[in-house]
């Protein structure tokens, strides 16, 4: 009988150890899920920033190319405003 009670006691101890390990792993999983969600938000922000910078770069390139073809500043400004309006319309459609 002592052997059975010893085995039962060892099983209880092993169970308690496993329970502690399981709880720690659950806590770690929660932390990792929170970190993952935060990283997704950061990634989304970075992608938005990259898109905005690319749009700005395109405007600058277009402005430079307008000067190269000989448009004066008033015409170039008008063309840039048209491009900006076009981009704004695209952004509005994406937000819908």
Give the distance, in angstroms, between the N- and C-terminal Cα atoms.
74 Å
* Overall form: rod-shaped
Major sheet attributes: none
Number of helices: 2
Mean pLDDT: 86
Unreliable stretches (pLDDT < 50, length at least 5) are none
Strand content: under 5%
DSSP helix fraction? over 70%
Number of separate strands: 0
Secondary-structure blueprint of this entry?
Layout: H1 2-68, H2 73-95
Task: Describe this entry's structure for a reader.
This protein is mainly α. It contains two helices and no strands. The model has no long low-confidence stretch (mean pLDDT 86). Helix 1 packs antiparallel against helix 2. The protein has one domain (2-95). The protein has helices at residues 2-68, 73-95.
Which properties best describe this structure?
rod-shaped, single chain, mainly alpha, 2 helices, 96 residues
Quick take:
By secondary structure, the chain is mainly alpha-helical. It has helices at 2-68, 73-95.
């Amino acid at each position: 009988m002592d052997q059975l009670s010893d085995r039962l006691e060892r099983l209880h101890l092993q169970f308690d150890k496993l329970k502690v390990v399981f709880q720690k792993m659950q806590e770690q999983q929660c932390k990792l899920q929170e970190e993952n969600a935060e990283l997704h938000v950061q990634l989304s922000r970075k992608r938005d920033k990259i898109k905005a910078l690319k749009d700005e770069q395109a405007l600058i390139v277009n402005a430079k190319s307008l000067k190269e073809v000989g448009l004066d500043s008033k015409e170039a400004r008008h063309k840039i405003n048209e491009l900006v309006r076009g981009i704004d319309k695209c952004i509005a459609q994406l937000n819908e």
